[in-house]
Design a protein that fits this description.
CATH class of one domain: Alpha Beta
Low-confidence stretches: 9-28
CATH topology of one domain: Rossmann fold
Order of helices and strands: HHHEHEHEHEHEHEHHEHEHHEHHHEHH
Radius of gyration: 21 Å
CATH architecture of one domain: 3-Layer(aba) Sandwich
Structural class: alpha/beta
Number of strands: 10
Shape: globular
Bound molecules: pyridoxal-5'-phosphate
Mean pLDDT: 91
């Protein structure tokens, strides 16, 4: 069978009229069919676009009791838990768009450079679409969980002897020369899909938050969120925009320092990026919103990582904890108190974006905990240990 015939069959299988759950009607447990279907009026899709979805999006906005209390009675802190997307990170929102459009354009192969999550997502959506996925990763710098995802989904994974920035340069060059589509966040459809997260936040809160706090790596996500908020405001869905607060890791903070970092270092591998592709757009989001882009140390990231798990019951990967580390850093500086007076808002709403699931990086979790104590297999020994 030719590649094109193959692709036609895939497209037919994904056409809305052939959607098994849709046609089953009464057996359907939920009407939710992913971000493209929910927000198609805001996305560059037509009836001809084959929707490749794993029902991404619709992630919970969790009220953070502990953090809200810590911030004081005039604050409400929410956690947008993007780790609950199908492949465990926010990348799925952009990937459903990028892969659907690639299929619409009859592309048979996609490629990305990745610190892990993009590759996991690209590999899963390419598998669903029946197309080839090629991944370039910086050798030795990918969390185990993410690498295993890309491999189990059947992607061709090549470890490049260099950092993420070198891998991205290679992916850009190859996809410029060969009929392979780049699915990094430089692909505009990725940004389109990812902006749906701001729509969800506004739809849940009934308005935009006052502040949004998030990690910044290659800066595609902050670009996407800001685009989403601005579009919702233009359409009259919200009447006020949030302040965008981005956080990089201290030794991988090119935007904060104002120059590219040759050898970025942080335990938060997802944001170990020295020369962000969407640098300018990130600065635009910061400046247009009146927000900031600052940095947090690995120690602060790990503290926030443990706090989220132990006090809020939410397990994230280290890069995601940079948002809460940033929240706590700014709170210590009384940043919010000063701002909120200006906003004259009774209860200030702060949303922290938790970009990826904790199970992505099991090594980090294991390094952060004490191993369980060994006890004798008898009642007396167990009761003694638990204080009864
Ligand atoms: C878990 C996680 N958090 C944050 C980021 C940073 O997002 P961006 O590169 O769009 O700034 C990434 C990117 O790989 C990620 O995987």
């Amino acid at each position: 069978m030719t590649e094109h015939k193959n692709l036609r069959m895939v497209r037919q299988a994904h056409h809305p009229s052939n959607h098994p759950e849709r046609s089953r009607g009464a057996y359907e447990l939920t009407n939710y069919n992913g971000v493209i279907e929910r927000y198609k009026q805001y996305l560059p899709v037509t009836d001809k676009t084959p929707i490749i979805t794993l029902k991404e999006g619709n992630t919970p906005l969790i009220y953070a009791n502990y953090l809200s209390k810590l911030m004081g009675r005039n604050f409400e802190v929410y956690l947008k838990y993007e780790g609950l997307n199908p492949t465990g990170s926010f990348k799925d929102r952009g990937m459903t768009m990028a892969i659907s459009k690639a299929c619409e354009e009859r592309v048979t192969a996609v490629m990305c450079a990745s610190t892990g999550n993009t590759s996991a997502s690209a590999a899963a959506y390419a598998a669903k679409a029946g197309i080839k996925c090629i991944v370039l990763i910086p050798a030795g710098a990918i969390a185990l969980g993410k690498l295993s995802q890309a491999l189990i989904h059947g992607a061709v994974v090549l470890a490049v002897d260099g950092n993420f920035d070198a891998a991205l340069d290679l992916a850009r060059e190859i996809t410029n020369k060969y009929p392979i589509t780049l699915v990094n966040s430089l692909n505009p459809y990725r940004i389109e899909g990812q902006k749906t997260a701001s729509f969800e936040i506004c739809d849940t809160l009934g308005k935009a938050p006052d502040f949004q706090v998030m990690p910044v790596g290659n800066a595609g996500n902050i670009t996407a969120y800001w685009k989403g908020y601005k579009e919702y405001k233009e359409k009259g869905k919200i009447n006020k925009l949030p302040l965008m607060l981005g956080f990089q890791a201290e030794l991988a903070a090119p935007i904060v320092r104002g120059y590219p970092i040759k050898n970025p270092r942080t335990i938060a591998t997802a944001i170990r990026i020295g020369n962000p592709a969407s640098w300018k757009q990130a600065e635009k989001a910061r400046d247009e919103s009146g927000g900031l882009i600052d940095m947090v140390s690995d120690k602060q990231i790990i503290e926030a990582y443990k706090l989220l798990a132990a006090k809020e019951g939410v397990f994230v990967e280290p890069a995601s904890a940079a948002s809460v580390a940033g929240l706590l850093k700014l709170a210590r500086k009384k940043y919010f108190n000063l701002r909120t007076c200006k906003l004259a808002n009774l209860r200030t709403k702060i949303v922290c974006i938790l970009t990826g699931h904790g199970l992505k990086d099991p090594d980090r979790a294991i390094k952060s905990i004490k191993e369980p104590r060994l006890v004798k297999a008898n009642l007396k020994a167990v009761l003694k240990e638990i204080g009864y």
